[in-house]
Specification:
Layout: H1 2-71, H2 80-85, H3 89-108, E1 117-118, H4 121-144, H5 147-174, H6 180-184, E2 186-190, E3 198-202, H7 203-222, H8 225-242, E4 243-244, H9 248-268, H10 271-278, E5 284-288, E6 296-300, H11 302-320, H12 326-349, H13 356-374, H14 377-382, H15 385-390, E7 403-404
Parallel strand pairs: 1-4, 2-7
Antiparallel strand pairs: 2-3, 5-6
Helix pairs in contact: 1-3, 3-8, 3-11, 3-12, 4-9, 4-10, 5-7, 5-8, 8-11, 9-11, 9-13, 11-12, 11-13, 12-13
Length: about 400
């Protein structure tokens, strides 16, 4: 009896000691768990900071390239020696440039509010027809009017448009170094004789417009290929950032229509190539080649923006589900493969190629294969960006800004 009592007493003391140790260790365990959570949050914050710094680095690299060209005029690739030196680097620079701008535009398109522009299925179906009408109109303009006159009018138009696009592209990097008041206070300016028209802007936008204005003046004066590319990159980033397909169904309709549009106008008519060569404006990216007869290879901005907004939709789809960039990686990889295929085929045949012939199947194929592998075809097709945004109980932070008349 005494042994049994002692055994039970010992077990109780042992249990009490173990319980006390467990309870005493709870704060430490909770602290470790909180540390893991904080570490995960810190990783996400650090990743966002890395993305932001990468975007700023891309912007800075293009501006530094602009300064280098000004200081070293020999880098204009107007002689045979410079063209021969870019035999291997031109294609790599082409791929890296388009990849960087798509990456930057995709991450800048992720916002708490929906993009300012969306596209419906009807718009996607009509887009190739409207694009064909615009392309044919430009072809007729260059055929029946003076090429210099048409390009002079287009230069004035893209001068203003380039200032707006370049300042909007540089604004996120510049506003970090400006006072908060300059970023939030809105100034309203009314036109002198048209009181119903007004323009709203902030001081930070004015500051960002200063380098954009000087840069566009240099572009108009020199028409350098690098200035053309930098303005084209700004247009691409703004297009990918602001435009939204809304759903993957709309994106598939648009890409399928432009797939046949690009093939028809490049392979079956001389219209596309003729307009691209005659159009002296930043609607295409120029890359020096070693061929004196064909000194530059060209890539239209539409071949970057249209697949880019589809890749950006994949990134926002991942963000809406609270996941990391899962499908964005596959779509972005498909875009990179499509661009590489375009460059390889173009250099192999030494002829113009419809870039969407290779980019569209690559982007849709990589993304489709990935979602089929994961068994998530239905969520992908049912995704609607407008419904996703509206379904968030409307809790969107809206900062009221002061207006200065």
């Amino acid at each position: 009896m005494t042994k049994t009592y002692r055994r039970r007493t010992g077990e109780k003391r042992k249990f009490a000691k173990t319980s006390a140790t467990t309870i005493a260790g709870l704060p430490s365990a909770i602290g470790d768990f909180q540390f893991l959570l904080w570490s995960e949050k810190e990783r996400e914050i650090n990743f966002e900071r890395v993305v932001d710094r990468s975007i700023d680095l891309v912007h800075l690299s293009y501006l530094l390239a602009f300064l280098v060209i000004l200081l070293i005029p020999e880098l204009n690739f107007d002689n045979e020696e410079c063209r021969a030196s870019c035999k291997y680097c031109s294609s790599r620079f082409n791929t890296c440039t388009t990849g960087c701008e798509v990456f930057v535009g995709c991450y800048r398109s992720v916002k708490p509010t929906p993009p300012s522009e969306t596209m419906s299925n009807e718009h996607a179906m009509r887009f190739p027809l409207v694009g064909s009408a615009m392309l044919l109109s430009l072809f007729l303009l260059f055929k029946f009017l003076s090429k210099d006159l048409v390009n002079a009018v287009l230069t004035c138009y893209f001068f203003v448009l380039g200032i707006i696009a370049l300042s909007a592209t540089l604004l996120p990097a510049i506003r970090r170094f400006l006072p908060t008041k300059w970023n939030e206070d809105v100034i309203t300016w009314q036109f002198p004789y048209f009181r119903s028209l007004d323009v709203e802007f902030t001081r930070s936008q004015v500051i960002a417009g200063i380098p954009g204005t000087f840069f566009c003046v240099w572009y108009v004066a020199q028409k350098h290929w690098l200035a053309n590319n930098i303005l084209g990159l700004a247009f691409c980033i703004q297009g990918i950032e602001m435009l939204s397909l809304g759903s993957f169904k709309t994106g598939a309709i648009l890409l399928a229509g432009l797939f046949f549009y690009d093939i028809f106008w490049v392979f079956f008519t001389p219209v596309m190539v003729s307009v691209a060569k005659s159009f002296d404006a930043p609607i295409k990216l120029l890359f020096p080649t070693r061929d004196a007869v064909r000194p530059f290879s060209m890539l239209g901005l539409g071949d970057i923006v249209i697949p880019g907004i589809f890749v950006a939709l994949a990134l926002r789809f991942d963000v809406s589900r609270g996941q990391k960039s899962q499908y964005f990686k596959s779509a972005f990889l498909g875009y990179a493969v499509g661009v590489v295929l375009t460059i390889v085929v173009m250099n192999w045949f030494q002829a113009a190629q419809p870039a969407l012939l290779y980019i569209v199947p690559s982007v849709i194929g990589f993304l489709g294969a990935h979602c089929i592998w994961n068994g998530e075809v239905k969520p992908l097709l049912e995704f609607d960006e407008s419904k996703t945004v509206d379904g968030g109980d409307g809790e969107v932070d809206e900062k009221t800004s002061k207006k200065i008349e």
